[in-house]
Amino acid sequence: MRGTLFGEQIDGYKNVLMYNGEYEIANAPIKPCDEKWKVSASDLNYQMQFGKPAIVEPVDSSQGIIMPEYRNIAQIPKTADPNDKYDIVAVVLFVEAEARRIPRDESRVISVREIMVIDHSTEQPLLISAWNDLAEDECDLLLQKAEQLQVVGFTALKVSPHRGFSMTTTMSTTIVHSADGDKPRALEDWTANHKTKLCHIQARILTLKGLMGNQQSITIAALRMKKAHTTLQDEKYTLQVTIPEPDFQKINAYLGCSSCNKRTDTPVGKSMTCPQCSKPGTKSVPRVTFNCEVSDGTGILPITAFTTDCEKIFNMAAPDIFRMKHSEDLTRFALLKNQLQTSPISIEVAPNTMLSMNNVLHWVLKKVADITEELPQSPTTSATNPNANPSSCGQASSIETSDKDNVETTFTTASDNTTSTPENVNIEKEPDNSTAQTPVQVSKLIQVKIEGSKGKTPDKGTKQTTIPLQDNTLTPNPGSSAA
User: Fold this and answer.
1) Which of 46, 204, 226, 259 is deepest in the core (most CB within 10 A)?
2) Containing H/E element for 268?
3) Inter-residue contact 152 to 117 (CB < 8 Å)
4) What is the sign of the dihedral through the CA atoms of 140, 141, 145 and 151?
């Protein structure tokens, strides 16, 4: 059950009610809880309020001040119980400059701010998401001393699957700016002895944050040279690639939920309550995945593209890819195959979330560039070196850009209108503004960001489906990898 403090009670009870303490509480009325203050649907519908008559006494009057039970970052279980909370002490490397505001409903806006920390037990910095009050004044204090590699304690953090493995503050969290005890003192000694290493990591984070929206170009060979212990979870790179051997059999076209993308036997365009995500009002729509290997002349990289990116790769809408697959239109695919082999596309890749989970580096597609997308300048080599020596601790090296000559690239399709539909056939399409079909000018560098595949992998073993399309019917061929 939640207890609620109002106004001056918050400071008044600061040293009375301690996290992990056990208390006997009397004369505290229990009242219905306002729905808008619930954090999750599992919260009880009641709350305890502390008015003037309330009496709070510790069960053990001799327990004194309850000290945090600090753990090393490596000791935090990656698959912890959602209700488990942990105390850590770590070196602060980065604090987001300002809190971001996220509308929760019509009457509430919540604040969140990113903090990056590290300790002696791990090579990967840990992301902590600070929420609401902690994202304001408390983070401002951290930001003021971020350059000093301050050792700070965080209590009552929860494990979050955000970006693979991260932690988030709770209503019980306290940020201890002057952490005391054996572990904080030992970490301070370690920080002093490894200041150069920590400054390099800090500079890489600051440089990376400064490049958000202006990802760096790289070759596949250089990408393969990167190591897990020197790569950050947020790193993203663009590659200029072709697809040397597009395989028709590697196109998987199926009907899926418009919300979660999972397979469904529901006829196309029909509304439903999805049995996978339980969301009402979703529709059955064509979905596509495509497995292939891309090359830039320096190496080969396997990728998996999902619906939005498949539309950009083939320059076709998902219903047309679906139709081409299930009608086995190999003539049309042959024209597309030639285009994929000869016309470079730009893709954005990033580490899989296994990097923050298990320190395993595997590169995945994040996005394929829209051919109408205006591309930012690419930074020079000196600015993109993640191991470049910072001029001083807490300062990122300056970023320079060099102009690139623009060249014209024409993307052609198998027909004048790639979204044409046979007579009397009507597949309801998802609203999408990214399927431009006319030849366009693009920069020599076409940047791409491919969304991660989590939650989008189609289920295996689903039965074949006959799809009524007004007067015509498309039925998956027995030899295809259809829905």
Assistant:
1) 204
2) none
3) yes
4) negative
User: Strands, E, within 296-449: which ranges?
Assistant: 300-305, 345-351, 363-368
> Residue 283: beta bridge partners?
271
Strands annotated E in 141-261: 151-160, 166-168, 175-176, 216-217, 237-241, 251-257
Q: From CA 388, how far away is CA 380, in angstroms rounded?
A: 13
Q: Is 305 helix (H, G, I), strand (E, B) or coil?
A: strand
Q: Is 331 helix (H, G, I), strand (E, B) or coil?
A: helix
Place of tokens 């106004």: 7
Q: Over range 96-117, report the average pLDDT.
A: 87
Residue type (1 letter), 21: G
Residues in the chain: 483
Query: Which residue, among 92, 100, 285, 287, has the nearest Cα to 201 in the 3D structure?
Result: 92
**241 closest CA partner among 297, 316, 292:** 297
CA-nearest of 251, 263, 242 to 457 is: 263
253: enclosing H helix or E strand: strand 251-257
CA–CA gap between residue 160 and residue 114 (Å, rounded): 13
Question: Measured between alpha carbons, how far is 307 from 450 in angstroms, rounded to an integer?
Answer: 11
CB 209 within 8 A of CB 188: no
Helix axes 318-326, 307-314, angle to 10 degrees: 80
- 359 or 433: whose pLDDT is higher? 359
CA 266/CA 251 separation, integer angstroms: 21
Q: What is the pLDDT of residues 7-55, one digit of tens each?
A: 677 676 766 776 667 777 777 778 787 766 666 666 777 777 777 677 7
Q: How many Å apart are CA 299 and CA 290, to the nearest integer?
A: 20
Q: Would the pLDDT of 211 be above 90?
A: no
Give the integer Cα–Cα distance in Å for 53 and 42. 29
> Which CA distances in Å does 154 have to 78, 115, 133, 195, 408?
18, 11, 14, 21, 53
Alpha helices in 73-194 (DSSP H): 137-144, 182-193
